[in-house]
Design a protein that fits this description.
Layout lengths: L1 H12 L6 H5 L5 H11 L7 H28 L7 H10 L1 H6 L22 H21 L7 H10 L4 H17 L9
Helix pairs in contact: 3-4, 4-5, 8-9
Length: 189
């Protein structure tokens, strides 16, 4: 008699018992999310569909991060995903980057970035120096007279002959500029 009652009950239920997660088709625990949502909002009622929706969203985000970080681990020829791979995955994907904008991932490091200025080749820097040397003589030929900077002349004129130091400074700078120009166009001081 007892066997007939247990058989009848299982026949009425319609087969095996399924968990709420299995019925919803998600891997994350629906009752656990339901409990967490109820704890976070104690005064309001929470339906089971809210827990299913939350579990599905969290499962999708987890799958997305795991897929991208797995690709980053493969790129670095590693078998395991570590925090660096998760950080790179989040920073590459625009939507995840926007979602996790203020989040710091411990042991994640920084994005690899080298200023393009530092990538100049030797051949291009040699070309730049040759171009600069070609330009300098043409500029110097166009200016025939060498003038002292106005700061030095005003110092020399303001001190007149009272200070020998200012006049030595201005005459030394004139000699340097004259030697750079090849001695052409020296001015009298």
């Amino acid at each position: 008699m007892t066997s007939s009652t247990t058989t009848g009950r299982s026949a009425r239920r319609g087969g095996e018992r399924k968990s709420k997660s299995a019925r919803a088709g998600v891997l994350f625990s629906v009752p656990r999310f339901h409990r967490y949502i109820k704890k976070s909002t104690p005064k309001s009622r929470v339906t089971m569909s809210a827990a299913v929706y939350t579990a599905a969203v969290i499962e999708y985000l987890t799958a997305e991060v795991l897929e991208l970080s797995g690709n980053a681990a493969k790129d670095h020829k590693k078998q395991r995903i570590n925090a660096r791979h998760i950080f790179l995955a989040v920073s590459i994907d625009e939507e995840l980057k926007k979602l996790l904008h203020g989040v710091t991932i411990p042991q994640g490091g920084v994005l690899p970035h080298i200023n393009p200025f530092l990538f100049k080749n030797k051949s291009s820097s040699d070309d730049d120096s040759q171009n600069a040397q070609k330009k300098k003589p043409s500029v110097l030929k166009s200016t025939s007279t060498v003038r002292a900077p106005s700061v030095l002349t005003t110092k020399a004129s303001s001190t007149a002959a009272g200070s020998n130091k200012a006049s030595l400074t201005s005459s030394a700078s004139l000699k340097k500029t004259a030697s750079v120009n090849g001695g052409a166009g020296t001015s009298s001081a």
